[in-house]
Structures are given as structure tokens and as C-alpha cells.
Amino acid sequence: MQTPEILDRINNGEDSTTQFKQDVTDANRLAEELVAFSNAAGGLLLIGVCDDGTLTGLSETQIGRINQLLSNTANENIKPPIYPLTEILNIQGKRIIAVSIRKGINRPYQTNKGVYFTKSGSDKRKMSPEELRRLFAESERLFADEETLLRTDITDLNTESFYAFLDADNRDVYEALKQAKLELPTVLHNLELLRDGHLTLAGNLIFGKTPQRFSPSFYVDCVHFDGDDVSVGNFITKATIKGSLSQQYESSMQFLRINLRSIPTAIGFNAHTRLEVDEAILGELLVNALVHRDYYIQSSVKVFVFQNRVEIISPGKLPNSLTVEKIKNGLSVHRNPILNSVCRRVLPYSGYGSGIKRVVKLNPSVTFIDDREKEEFRCLIPRNPTQNE
């Protein structure tokens, strides 16, 4: 790294990607710092710099000892091992060690004492069970909707709803089931809606009798605010919408129909009306939020109606290398493959990644925000300005 870049980092102080140490002597504490960086976005550890940014430098003896400590710690005190890059720099006549730690490709990492850390601002903290589950799932290429809900069994399935789906999706299997040539658990297992006698998350969300009994955080919060921001003191109406994904979709759309203005399409008492916001746009974005949200985050989908816009917010940033521009051009990554497959018969959803592209074609002024810090994906749909004066 170049001296001006290092000086900028020092002058800006410690943050989530920059840490100062005057010296390091304890392998266990060093392991905690390296693990925290590896489980987060990576970063730079500057040794020979005080917490306040004062350059103290290191002696030749210190440099030799610290380099050996770094090597041993990275290999012996961290599981799986990491491979930081070290560089000895001369800054303002002081020699320091710059340790570059990459964002780990085998996350989550732990110390040899079995503790998982991640960054929290300029400090570190132990990782929550939820964060660990998500990182383990990512590393093992598991998906949230595949997880089994151990408190469930087949009696928690709404069989009437499932049979209606099967009748539309695969008539041959439906008939074989009716004629007892196939057993219900077998069909559910083949569709990955049941595993080891328990409903998967997908099975519960799509066909569960009371989905929120076992998945209490997965519902839709609908609020009509009396203003243009969530900080306003008053709301006009609100609703907590639970049930299966199809019930959540229908009830959320009904909330929007009630809380948005209807505009006559012609002159006359009996003229038809349409919503001030295209229902096709609202439907596409709501389906997108329900099917593609991050189900490792224990939070609800938000449907907010403001005076000047509608916002549909789904938990989770865009996965992998997806960007807003890529999804606007029709590229998709299936975060929840079971939901993606089954919901084609349950919701007005094609599963081909065309939804956002279709929204942009219908209304180019719709804005998409991939908020990676808050871990949420927001869709902002402007309301008809002539109706809000």
C-alpha cells in the first residue's frame, strides 16, 4: 500500500475496516481481531499505531516477533485458517506493519476456543445464532426455504390448499394420489415441502394451516402514513397481514386498493376506475418481496403508503453479485429455489426474472434501492401527483 493511502486511513481513524494496534503479544486476542475481519468485509490492521492515530513504530525485534505471531495465529488459532498479507512500511520515519485481511471465502471463521466474532463499527462482537446460521447456510450452499421446522409435522399442512395446487400443477400425480398409488408424504418430500416428517419453511409458508405459529416473523406490515416519512406522528390505517404467502399477497393487495385513490377512466357516473398506481406494478413488486426476500432475517415485509409514494420493502440485500442494474435487465438469482418453483402455481409469478424488468417498462420512474447496510431491498413507486395536491 502507498504511504498517502495509509496516512489517510490513519487520519480518518478506526472504523469497520481499519484497526490500530500499538503492539500485539497475545495470540488469542489477535485471533479474535482477525476472525472479526474475516467474517465481515475484511480490512486493514495497522500495528505500530496507537488508538488515537499516533505513530509509535516498531523495532526490528518487534517486527520479527509480530510476523511470527501473525503466521502462527492465522494457522493455529483460527478455524479454518486464514492467509493475511503483511507489509512493513516506513511512515514518517516510523516502521509499522500493515496486515491486510480479506473477506473470508469459507465463512464463518472461529477462534480455536470456538468463538465467532464479526465487526461492529470500529470494535468487534460475538456473532448471533441467526448470523451464524446464515453464514453456515451460505458456505454449504443451503437455502433458507429448505430448512425443516422441527415442531411441525404433516398434520400442520392445509391439505385442501395443497391438493388444489397439485390439481393445477400435475394432474397425473394428483390422480395417482387420489387413487392411493402414491402417498402424500412421498409427494411432499419430492417437492421438498416435507423432510424427515417435518414441513420445510417453504412447505409451511405456502401450505401451512397457521404459518406464523412456526414462522412468527414472516408476515406483511402494512401502514398508510399521514405524510411522506415514517417519522410522522400519525397514520391513517395499518394492518398486520398473516397467513400463507397467497393470503399475504391477496390481503396486502386489498390494503393497497383501499388506501390508494381510484381514478375514473372516462367521464360519467358509471365510468370504470383504476388505481392511481398500476396494479400490475404493485403485484409484481409484492410477489418479488414475498418470494425473493431473505428468510434468514427475522423480519416482516413492509408495505408503506405515503402521501407521495408507495414503498415495498423486503428484508435482505440483493444476493451474490446482483445489482439494481442487473435485475432491471432481467437477471435473477434464486435465493429461495423451492418458493421460486412452487409459487409459480400459487402466486401471479412466472419465476423467470422478468418481474422487475416488466415494472421498469410499465413505469421507468419506479426506484430500486439495494440498502446493503440495512440489509433491505426497497421499491419506491410514485403516486399520481395530480391526485395528491
Largest sheet: 6 strands, mixed
Strand content: 15-25%
Number of helices: 14
Radius of gyration over C-alpha positions, nearest whole angstrom: 26 Å
**The CATH architecture of the largest domain:** 2-Layer Sandwich
Please tell me the total number of domains: 3
Could you tell me the CATH topology label of the largest domain. Answer: Heat Shock Protein 90
Shape: globular
Residue stretches low in confidence (pLDDT < 50, at least 5 long) are none
The first-level CATH class name of the largest domain: Alpha Beta
Give me the side-by-side strand order of the main sheet: 12-11-15-16-18-17
How far apart, in Å, are the first and last alpha carbons? Answer: 56 Å
- Helicity, in percent? 25-40%
Total E-strand runs: 18
- What structural class do the secondary elements suggest? alpha+beta
Q: Mean pLDDT score, rounded?
A: 91
Domain Schlafen AlbA-2: 14-128
Protein name: DNA binding domain-containing protein
Organism: Candidatus Thiothrix anitrata
InterPro entries: RecG_C_sf, Schlafen_AlbA_2_dom, Schlafen_AlbA_2_dom_sf
